[in-house]
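Entry type: protein chain
Record version: 2
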Amino acid sequence: MTFNTVTVLGAGAWGTALANAAARAGRQVTLWARDSAQVEALAATRESRYLPGVKLEEGITPQADLALAAKAGLVLAVVPAQATRSLLDQLAGHLPAGVPIVYCSKGIEQGTGLFLHDISAACLPANPAAILSGPSFAADVSRGLPTAVTLAAFDEDLARRIAAALAGPALRLYHATDVIGVEIGGAAKNVLAIACGIAAGRGLGASAGAALVARGFAELSRFGRAFGARPETLMGLSGLGDLVLTCSSTQSRNFSFGVALGRGERPGEAGHGKLAEGAYTASVLVQMARSKGVELPIAEAVEGIISGHMGVADAVGTLLARPSKAEGS
């Protein structure tokens, strides 16, 4: 398989950015959106409302018909993590067996505690799953700014071939086989980015922000080890690299969501109409950690704020009041 034809399912900011990247890599790209009016607008203006000023590359065809969109050698699923199962259920009758699906969202399914590759195995067992994750903002990728990410699949040769198919002049993909590690890095860092945003919105200073990144990475590592992730994966692009980026910029929806919480906005309003995946991942991340006896005090504080069980001031006070312990534990 050479993956000359690529379909991107989801025409939001990240889906549009990846469609542009795939087109720059020389692929013929179908960009699917559920909303036919959005597809018509994309076809007419060649510009997404989610990325103002960014034009669709030549070689990208907007499409609203899922059956037609499924006719590709490679599929990128770029819908919210909590909507993945619904999309795959619709896709099941259209996607030929053997066509790989690359999951480009970052989250864990609520209610089941399943990672995206687990959902894929349940819904589309005949289609190999891969994960794309790493430090990347849609605005940067869409404009062709230098970016490096990780592409993981259980089959190393498949991961290598997909990475080669999507790599372009400014997008570098490192292939890996630690699927669970790459997924954990992407899901957990969103929750930790909310914590860093809360600290920034509360005006706690750069020192507190740096401490949260460091201690947050310790939490991510503990969680990852408990679920079988490799240490080198957690230290890489999809773990530490993505954590640092997402915890330090208002381009991050999760960080911005946290800033709004820190300034006193309610969880239901803090997103300002934009999706912060970490807001949905926090509760399931904490539940999964408890099932393994893993302590995640920062993630627990975020979950408490989002669920309304704890105020921001109380959460900060609880974290500061934790008993002193040896670093590295």
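Comment: The chain is about 50% helix and 10% strand.
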